[in-house]
Design brief:
This protein is of the alpha+beta class. It is built from 4 helices and 13 strands.
Length: about 270
């Protein structure tokens, strides 16, 4: 086989690979078939498609295709969001402390407080947790708890043993950069302030990557914290005890008080890629 022929074959394989598989798109067999026909016609016109070369070429392409499709199938399965709230009832969840969560039109609504609605099914680590929420007004206080080490029995205990990813866009409570939506409550300083207006839905994604916690709100990074980083000293009695949290823990949603009404329409999770 000449160097020029080899070049055409390698170019053909590259064309197929780049047009069939993308980490951001699902498989397209129609697209693969179209690409294969184009490559085959090009090789025939250039006179590089003898019977032996044809057999070798299609064997190589078949193996390449099998590899690419299997990787894409695994990728799509591993990154699929798993819903923890079914939109109908509180199956898999339990509430502790004053107040409650009710379901209105398929959405969780916080009532009273201070309490915690926590997911009982498992602990979470090395994953991304997605929360879609909105608030009734700018003075609403709520939060998403992560890295809770043990089955919670008291909402104040959770404040001191897990981390609270803050939801608070107002001035009724603390109003500095360590008490805004997306920070680890009183521990980290906000890197951005992307919460939308009351009534508009926000998407919060909390990445648990070993000892690292990263929070994005509406696509903007608000927190990037690694265990052991310096944090401010406690300033008020109700701020959490400083100290390390576990890599794996339960999660929960906070209902803070009777004047804070928050709504949650999605709580989902997906594992981090290997």
């Amino acid at each position: 086989m000449s160097d020029r022929t080899s070049l055409h074959l390698w170019t053909a394989d590259f064309h197929l690979a780049n047009n069939v598989r993308s980490p951001y798109n699902r498989l397209s067999f129609g697209k693969f078939s179209s690409c294969l026909n184009i490559v085959t016609d090009n090789l025939k016109r250039k006179g590089h498609f003898t019977m032996i070369r044809q057999m070798v070429y299609f064997l190589l392409v078949s193996l390449l295709t099998l590899l690419l499709f299997s990787q894409d199938l695994l990728f799509s399965q591993d990154t699929e969001w798993r819903q923890l709230f079914n939109g109908k009832d509180l199956e898999g969840w339990d509430h502790i402390g004053p107040g409650e969560f009710v379901i209105e039109d398929g959405v969780l609504k916080s009532v009273g407080g201070m309490g915690l609605l926590w997911y009982t099914g498992e602990k979470f680590s090395n994953c991304v947790i997605r929360i879609v929420f909105t608030v009734e007004d700018n003075n609403v206080n709520s939060g998403v708890f992560i890295r809770i080490p043990e089955i919670p029995e008291d909402p104040w205990e959770v404040v001191n043993t897990g981390y609270e990813v803050q939801i608070d866009n107002g001035f009724r409570f603390d109003s500095d950069d360590y008490h805004v939506t997306g920070v680890l409550y009183s521990l980290t300083k906000g890197m951005a302030y992307p919460q939308k207006r009351p009534g508009e839905w926000n998407t919060m994604e909390i990445t648990l990557d070993g000892p690292i916690t990263i929070v994005h709100v509406n696509g903007k990074k608000v927190t990037h914290y690694a265990e052991g980083q310096p944090v401010p000293k406690e300033r008020r009695w109700y701020e959490p005890v400083r100290g390390p949290r576990p890599e794996s823990g339960y999660i929960g949603l906070q209902n803070h008080d009777e004047e804070s009404t928050a709504y949650f329409k999605e709580v989902s999770v997906k594992p981090l890629p290997e």
